[in-house]
Structures are given as structure tokens and as C-alpha cells.
Specification:
Length: about 500
């Protein structure tokens, strides 16, 4: 930039303009000065190769339901919930991502951080240039100054000038400040990505629990109906003298216990539906929550297992913690630079004239240097404070990484144990079904009473109730694994992909 200035009265070239240009060029040259403070480097990836102390089975047990394979080479799709193959579930997640106030808040915070970084960059990276034009009408009374001459007639005073100022960032204070603001914007970006991931995970988990509760309510009502039939039979046998009154009281207790179990399940279902309404951004009275059943959900048979060294680049919460480290590192540089001199250059040029005289050039060039000499140790204390904040951010990063590894390890173990539990529950249900089948045949042949048949059917329903809970846990923990591994945000379109750190080893979009 060449801040040349001209008089508002005379368009000819003014003297001193070349000097002003030289000063500005010098300012840009000094912009490449040294930058004090630490140069941020991303933390080294973890050296641990697995998440659990013992080797994780590559395939879950297969005797009950589909087997699940842990595939280290599998990439996570950005819309990972579609692997459950449920159009109703997909619509719920999409509606939540489109309407959630939580995402709107996170998006607004990201925009604020980005614009703050843009504003500070523009204010510190480039010189400040301001133009001033003024016009005045004046009357001078020479007699009031003791001048024995006639006063001139009223005249116009015209003034035009351009002022340039620039603070030389010799020690990188402004550059570190802009670096910190950029890291803050990155933090908000990862917070937004994490909010998206959590929202999708919450919708999937809530939808699965909704399906589980619907099945539980249906089976509980069937068991209540069976127990009521048993009660009717027992009452008839008591009246006939075949059973004691004690048996009636015992059966009524079971009936009422089962009846009492239905309202809490219905309450849980209502709470889940209200939660889904909140997640999709609608009041419960206006939300249309579709009924999802476990039978309409597909259990993903291929599950990813990301290496720990890649997990730290995939999880939004870890990337957010790293951005806070970066910002804290930049703040150390800002505090360090404040210990050194601050130099500001300024220049102005313009012209001034009246309505009856030709204007002349007016210009100035100057500089100012400020060096802290004594401030009671405040600046060095601020630097020590910034260093301590950086150490705190580093410890927080390590804590977030450890928690992420714990979550993945818990989920991997849960997937394995879910399959084992489902296998046992399925075997129990199969045995109960076989017992009920035999009882039906014996009842048809007159070998057992209807009361015994109903009891066998009730046991079969109870084992089915337990099996449904185990099956639902497999769906929930499979969704938790996709969520704990980062959710596949890196497989978005390149235009919507969040910024990556230099040298980021993230996989490319297919």
C-alpha cells in the first residue's frame, strides 16, 4: 500500500510522499520479525495399540442372533445410523440435525469465534488508514488581536488528510493473539461437531429404548392376561374345594404385581417420546414420534475398531481439547511478547487552504516506542499464569484422551458380553418354548390341567421378556461404539469437512 495524499485544492504531487511510502514498506518488512513464546506442536499420538488388557474377540458368539465382526479396516460412514436400516430412525436423526436448538447455539458460537478472529486479524495484520475531510466558514476580527488593519471578509477553510498508523509486531504479540483466536474458533468448530455426534447418538439410543419398552409393555400385558386366567381357574378350584384359599391370595399377589409393573413402563415410554420430541426440536404435543420396533432394526454385522493412534484425530472432544491447548500455547507467546518493546509508526499527509488562497501540503511522520520498565512484576506474573494455564490445558487433554479410551474399552467389552448374555437368554427362551410346546401337547391329550399349561406359557413369556432386553442392549452398544469412535464426520463432503491440523493423518473421503 502507498498512502499517497493530495491537497483538496491542488491535484499536484506533494513533496514527502516517497518518504511516507518508504516508511510503510519498512513496516511490512518488519512484520516478518521474530515471534516469542512456544511454537505449538500437536501432542504425540499414543503408543498403546489396544483398548483392553486382554485381546478382544474378533467375532461375537453366533448361536443367538447374527454374529458381529470387529473390523479394524472398516471406515465409519458419516451417517452411521443408516447401518441399522430403519427409515423411521433415519428420519428422526435427520429431523433432529435440522431442527435442534442445541446445534443452532453451537453454530452461533462458532460464527462468533470466527468473526472475532477475522476482526482481530484485520486490525493487527494491516496498517490503519483513516481519511479526514473538513470544511469551515470563518470570520477573523484582527482588531481583537491588536492588529491595526481592516479585517478580511468571511472565508472558507478547507482541509483534507490521510493518516496511517501501524503497530510493529516485532515480537509476535499480535500474531500469537490471532493464533489463539483461530484456535478458539477451531475449538468451537469441534464443539459443534461433537454436538452433532452426541445428538445423533442420543436419538438412536432413545429410539432403540422406545422399541424395547414397547416390546416390554406388550409382553407384560400378555403375562398379566395369563395370570388373570390362572386366577380365575384357581378361584373356581377353591370354590370346588380342590385348592386352599391360600392359593388364591398367592395368585392375586402375582396378578397385582404384574398389573403394577405396566404403568411404570408406560411412563418410561412417555418420557422417551418426550425426549425424542426435545431432540428433534419440537414440543411433545406437536412432535410426531413414529413407533419403532426391534424387529424393524438391523443389527450391524460389521463393526469398526479404530486404532488408538487414529482415535485422537477422530473424536471431536479430543480435537476440542487439543484446540484449547493450542490457544493456551499462543497465550504464553502473547504474555512473553508484552515483556518487550512495542513500536508504533504513524504518518499523515494532506492539504489545507482557504477560499481565497491556494492550499499547501501538510504532512508528518513519526514513531513511538514503549518499553515496560517497572510494573511490580505484573507482566512476569501474567506470563507465569499463562504457562500454568497451558499446563492445565495439557493435563485436560490427557484426561479427555483417557476417558475416550475408557469409553471405547467399555463399549467393546459390552458388545462381547451382550452377545454372551443374549446367547444364554435365547437358550433359556428356547427351553421355555420347548416346555410350553410339550405342555400344549399334554394338555391336548388330557395329561395336564389348563392351569399348568398357562404357567408354562407364562414362563415362556418371561424368558422372552429377558431376551428382548438383551437384544436391545446389543443395538444400543453397537450405536455407542460408532459414537465413541468419532462418528465418521471426516467422510462428509470436502466443502463441509471441519478443518484438520497440519499433517493430520485422517482418512480421506471415499
Amino acid at each position: 500500500m502507498n498512502p499517497s495524499t493530495t491537497s483538496t485544492l491542488e491535484p499536484r504531487k506533494q513533496p514527502g510522499i516517497s518518504r511516507l511510502g518508504i516508511v510503510v514498506l519498512l513496516a511490512f518488512a518488519l512484520l516478518c520479525g521474530c515471534t516469542v513464546g512456544p511454537h505449538y506442536h500437536a501432542p504425540a499420538p499414543p503408543t498403546v495399540a489396544t483398548y483392553t488388557p486382554d485381546p478382544q474377540p474378533a467375532t461375537t458368539v453366533t448361536s443367538a442372533g447374527p454374529a458381529q465382526h470387529l473390523n479394524p479396516a472398516m471406515d465409519i460412514p458419516e451417517q452411521w445410523w443408516t447401518l441399522f436400516r430403519s427409515p423411521e430412525l433415519d428420519r428422526l436423526v435427520r429431523e433432529a440435525l435440522a431442527n435442534s436448538p442445541t446445534l443452532a447455539q453451537a453454530t452461533a458460537r462458532l460464527k462468533q469465534a470466527q468473526e472475532e478472529a477475522n476482526a482481530r486479524t484485520g486490525a493487527t495484520k494491516y496498517p490503519s488508514v483513516n481519511a479526514t475531510v473538513s470544511a469551515q466558514r470563518e470570520q477573523v476580527d484582527l482588531a481583537s488581536f491588536g492588529v491595526p488593519f481592516p479585517s478580511p471578509p468571511p472565508f472558507g477553510l478547507l482541509n483534507g488528510s490521510v493518516a496511517v498508523s501501524y503497530a510493529l509486531d516485532l515480537f509476535g504479540s499480535n500474531r500469537r493473539l490471532v493464533e489463539g483466536l483461530a484456535a478458539q474458533a477451531d475449538y468451537q468448530n469441534w464443539q459443534l461437531e461433537g454436538a452433532r455426534l452426541m445428538l445423533a447418538g442420543n436419538v438412536v439410543s432413545a429410539a432403540i429404548r422406545q422399541a424395547q419398552l414397547r416390546s416390554q409393555i406388550d409382553l407384560t400385558r400378555q403375562m398379566f392376561a395369563l395370570q388373570q386366567q390362572q386366577l380365575d381357574i384357581i378361584e373356581q378350584r377353591v370354590q370346588a374345594g380342590g385348592l386352599a384359599l391360600y392359593n388364591v391370595s398367592q395368585q392375586r399377589t402375582l396378578v397385582e404385581q404384574t398389573r403394577a409393573a405396566i404403568p411404570p413402563l408406560e411412563q418410561q415410554l412417555d418420557v422417551i417420546n418426550h425426549q425424542l420430541a426435545l431432540l428433534i426440536g419440537k414440543p411433545p404435543a406437536e412432535a410426531h414420534i413414529e413407533a419403532i420396533t426391534l424387529d424393524t432394526l438391523h443389527l450391524p454385522e460389521e463393526l469398526p475398531v479404530t486404532l488408538p493412534s487414529s482415535l485422537v484425530r477422530q473424536r471431536p472432544d479430543i480435537r476440542a481439547a487439543e484446540s484449547l491447548m493450542h490457544q493456551a500455547s499462543a497465550n504464553v507467546g502473547v504474555a512473553t511478547a508484552h515483556l518487550y518493546p512495542q513500536i508504533t509508526l504513524s504518518a499523515s499527509g494532506g492539504g489545507i487552504g482557504t477560499s481565497f488562497t491556494q492550499g499547501g501540503p501538510v504532512w508528518s511522520i513519526g514513531g513511538a516506542l514503549a518499553q515496560p520498565i517497572f510494573n511490580g512484576g505484573a507482566l512476569r506474573a501474567e506470563k507465569r499464569q499463562a504457562v500454568a494455564a497451558y499446563e492445565e490445558a495439557g493435563a485436560n487433554y490427557q484426561q479427555v484422551v483417557l476417558q475416550a479410551f475408557e469409553q471405547v474399552a467399555d463399549t467393546l467389552r459390552a458388545i462381547d458380553h451382550d452377545a454372551q448374555t443374549l446367547q444364554a437368554r435365547s437358550e433359556a427362551a428356547a427351553q421355555a418354548e420347548a416346555t410350553y410346546s410339550i405342555a400344549s401337547q399334554r394338555y391336548s391329550a388330557g395329561g395336564i390341567s389348563q392351569l399348568t399349561l398357562l404357567d408354562a406359557e407364562r414362563q415362556y413369556l418371561q424368558t422372552s421378556f429377558d431376551r428382548i432386553n438383551s437384544a436391545a442392549n446389543r443395538y444400543v452398544d453397537s450405536a455407542s461404539l460408532f459414537q465413541s469412535l468419532g462418528g465418521g464426520w471426516w467422510n462428509k463432503d470436502s466443502a463441509a469437512k471441519p478443518p484438520s491440523a497440519p499433517g493430520d493423518p485422517m482418512p480421506k473421503s471415499p
